[in-house]
Amino acid sequence: MAELQEVQITEEKPLLPGQTPETAKEAELAARILLDQGQTHSVETPYGSVTFTVYGTPKPKRPAIFTYHDVGLNYKSCFQPLFQFGDMQEIIQNFVRVHVDAPGMEEGAPVFPLGYQYPSLDQLADMIPCILQYLNFSTIIGVGVGAGAYILSRYALTHPDTVEGLVLINIDPNAKGWMDWAAHKLTGLTSSIPEMILGHLFSQEELSGNSELIQKYRNIITHAPNLENIELYWNSYNNRRDLNFERGGETTLKCPVMLVVGDQAPHEDAVVECNSKLDPTQTSFLKMADSGGQPQLTQPGKLTEAFKYFLQGMGYMASSCMTRLSRSRTASLTSAASIDGGRSRSRTLSQSSESGTLPSGPPGHTMEVSC
């Protein structure tokens, strides 16, 4: 009797009619390259059409990184320096990314007709479920700047089960008060819309220095072909409602949150106040030195490192190698007073431009980090 031999049978993906294995492999490679380069989609919502670009392929049991940009920018001008940074590649290889352009902010967007009613920030947040349903994504980690940070926070308040974490840069959760309105109207009499928006994005020190970065973004905004659309988004931001965050109350963010602001940034006080209203066991506060009003543009390396620690605290990328802030540096860590008994502790990490590390671990502390 002939000896039986064990044969390994590998399951193959079914080929389309008339398709050879070689052409199937080429088609799969072409599709992967296309995904890596980004696919742009538009979806209709109850408040109009919204455009977004997807990079990479969804990873099993992992949320999508979901970004939303600030006024005067689109996803490229707001986030490209951060997501194209070398150390960020380790992150984006592990997550699919969705970059949203607010209506009328995408490249080549036509100018809205006169009298067009631009969506409020609350309505922009209500567009997000349509995007996730279109993509069949169940959860996200949001990364927002300015108006985008507000929009993602509003969405997280109404859909907490779909948000695993938030990175909020320059968030101002408060509605404009009477003094703010008066100052805004007075500024509007003496400044153009582009200059007002630049004052929102960058610190006065940066604007006075007129660096190459400032010149670049002043040119982008001043000569934007969709400047009328940008003004509509700007008006919606200035008409935002108060998020009414309350520490220990019902209205709060229930996911891990990393608040980020640059030193001497226009929104520094607002972010500090926001930090005081959120759950200290879920919130990290990152105050970045030498970063101005847009940390994701001026300090992408430090922000990438902080983002890695944030993801590690959420249970992702446990084996990630910290390469910038944690290598050959020393830290000075001071513990402050205990909050709510001994349940949590507020900590301050002081870093000079030459030394310091960020603490790892879950976001169980409120940390003010100056790096």
TrEMBL record:
It is found in: Cell projection, Growth cone; Cytoplasm. The keyword Membrane does not apply. Residues 347-356 have a biased composition (Low complexity). GO terms for biological process: cell differentiation; negative regulation of cytokine production; negative regulation of ERK1 and ERK2 cascade; negative regulation of vascular associated smooth muscle cell proliferation; nervous system development; regulation of platelet-derived growth factor production; regulation of vascular endothelial growth factor production; vascular associated smooth muscle cell proliferation. It comes from the Eukaryota. One of its GO terms (cellular component) is Golgi apparatus. Its main location: other. Pfam families: Ndr (PF03096). Keywords: Cytoplasm, Developmental protein, Differentiation, Neurogenesis, Wnt signaling pathway. The keyword Zinc does not apply. Residues 1-22, 334-371 are annotated as: Disordered. Belongs to the NDRG family. Contributes to the regulation of the Wnt signaling pathway. Down-regulates CTNNB1-mediated transcriptional activation of target genes, such as CCND1, and may thereby act as tumor suppressor. May be involved in dendritic cell and neuron differentiation. This is Protein NDRG2.
